[in-house]
Amino acid sequence: MAGDEKVQAKVEQAKGKVEETAGKAVGNEQLNAEGRADQAKGDARQAKEKIKDALTD
């Protein structure tokens, strides 16, 4: 399960980066903001997994 969470975090980060870049390119602030939010969500998920890994080692 932890591996799935790590993959999901990377997917959210990548999706967010694409949305943010696309939003900037076309001048769509909402898409840009959604991209930043997705990246933050991925970062939070990744941090949670790192904490879980540290506690289980």
Tell me what the structure shows.
- The protein is an all-alpha fold and 57 residues long.
- Helix content is 93%, strand content 0%.
- It has 2 helices and no strands.
- Helix 1 packs antiparallel against helix 2.
- It is elongated, with a radius of gyration of 13 Å.
- The two termini are 16 Å apart.
Quick summary:
The chain is mainly alpha-helical and 57 residues long.
Topology of this protein?
Elements: H1 2-26, H2 29-56
Helix pairs in contact: 1-2
Structural descriptors:
mainly alpha; 2 helices; 93% helix
Overall mean confidence score, pLDDT: 93
> How far apart, in Å, are the first and last alpha carbons?
16 Å
What sort of overall outline do the alpha carbons produce when their principal axes are compared?
A: elongated
- Which value, in Å, is the CA radius of gyration? 13 Å
**How would you sum up the major sheet?**
none
The total of beta strands comes to 0
Secondary-structure element string: HH
Spans where pLDDT lies below 50 across 5 or more residues: none
Class per helix and strand makeup: mainly alpha
Beta fraction of the residues? Answer: under 5%
Helix percentage range: over 70%
Number of distinct helices: 2
